[in-house]
Amino acid sequence: MGVDLVGTISDLRILVGRRRSAGPVGFVPTMGALHAGHASLITRARRDCATVVVSVFVNPIQFDRPEDLERYPRSLNADVALCGTLGADIVFAPSVDEMYPVPLECAVSVGRLADHLCGRSRPGHFSSVATVVLKLLQIVQPGAAYFGEKDAQQLAIVRRLVSDFNLPVTIVGVPTVREPDGLALSSRNQRLDTAERQLAPALYRALRQVKNALAAGIVDAAELKRRGAAEVPADARLKLDYLEIVDPDNFQPVERVLGPVVAAGALFVGATRLIDNVRCSPGEP
Amino acid sequence: MGVDLVGTISDLRILVGRRRSAGPVGFVPTMGALHAGHASLITRARRDCATVVVSVFVNPIQFDRPEDLERYPRSLNADVALCGTLGADIVFAPSVDEMYPVPLECAVSVGRLADHLCGRSRPGHFSSVATVVLKLLQIVQPGAAYFGEKDAQQLAIVRRLVSDFNLPVTIVGVPTVREPDGLALSSRNQRLDTAERQLAPALYRALRQVKNALAAGIVDAAELKRRGAAEVPADARLKLDYLEIVDPDNFQPVERVLGPVVAAGALFVGATRLIDNVRCSPGEP
Lengths: 285, 285
Description:
Two copies of one chain form a homodimer. Chain A is an alpha/beta fold.
């Protein structure tokens, strides 16, 4: 059997159409450079669905920094091989022209869910993410789509995209996969040099520190953030882009933690921007 | 058999789902107060499709003037009866709460296609139209959806919505149905009193005058518009909101007419705003 690699929307629709009667179609949208985090998404989709489609598309409109787009790692051959190993049926790897043959006239706008965290430091980013996710969901028409919890704000926005627009798809969030030292898996980790790689787990340590302080009874967000930020060593290669404590539903910052929250952070490690998040509640270990 | 009236998204999906294997699903979105213009859409869908779904939903977010929303005619019982007579299978008439259970976080934004004509005089209108059309298409999941050419700018925007977002649906434009004196059928015509009704065909006459002048060799848009506007009598009850000559693809105004264009106008007749349009080309009778 093996995995089918297709580059056009019409071919993808034909291939998926042939398989649709066999049962649910599961979809894993990715930007490629697949790692064990993506593998956990694909494995979950494989367990749930008769057909598994993985897309590999580095969406240019969601990059606010041209150098970030240029440096984004690409490894299509290895990605296709991994998808085959994991039992995916179809890899959809369209060109930019296939996805954006003409400049878009219509786009998805995202409200206050995109106001903070990565939305504040990357204006327009989530509008472009929501737009490409909508396009991909319309192309593949899956019954379920799988997203990593590592991109917590993206996942929350995709869930609202689906409910606001009544999209006929179930969104499944899959837990973050981590290196033994806690670093969340990310395609961007490839860009870190050896010294940067050693510094990178500071982000997760900061978030864990917030969780621990909250478990110990501290509920003032400013104090929690101060304690978290203190975990990031003073090093010229590290710059905390943000560390916030937000409501898990609307991603608005909270001042006092009265229930479940998401502690979320973004850390520049050299030129590479990493994000991570941890769910936590007052008094919860 | 008769027509099924459903008010909830889940019921609609169950009913349509049962019929999907019978063949193509055709969808006619309306705001109700159905007239012969809608009937031509439903009849066309009936001819093309195994299942015909008509939605009746007065979309509150697309009304810029509260009094326009309040005065919009509603006649669900008569609408359902007409749908039954025309052989439609399902009427979907959701409540506002069913369509908007919470304020939207995501919406469709529309670019320069919405800059002019009705978009200029009704800011945000087409974004809200595109948003509700997207929602309805996701709820019904039709193979084809039918829209009147009377709402030319709306039709152009819906076509771009579909191509930009890769929606798996064919959009079918259906010619405008007119009264014997040329007035385009519209639910808003019901609001006209006898005197206003007699004045209302001035809009179509103005657009026909543009077409005739263009056929006679005049290509300067300002002169064409002047001649068209001269057809609107000086009457305190009439106010031309706009009369424009635009490119049929991007709805941008043209200065000289070098190929096919759309002459489009909006006329206040008393408190009622009517729109109409005519396609024309230089030298074409």
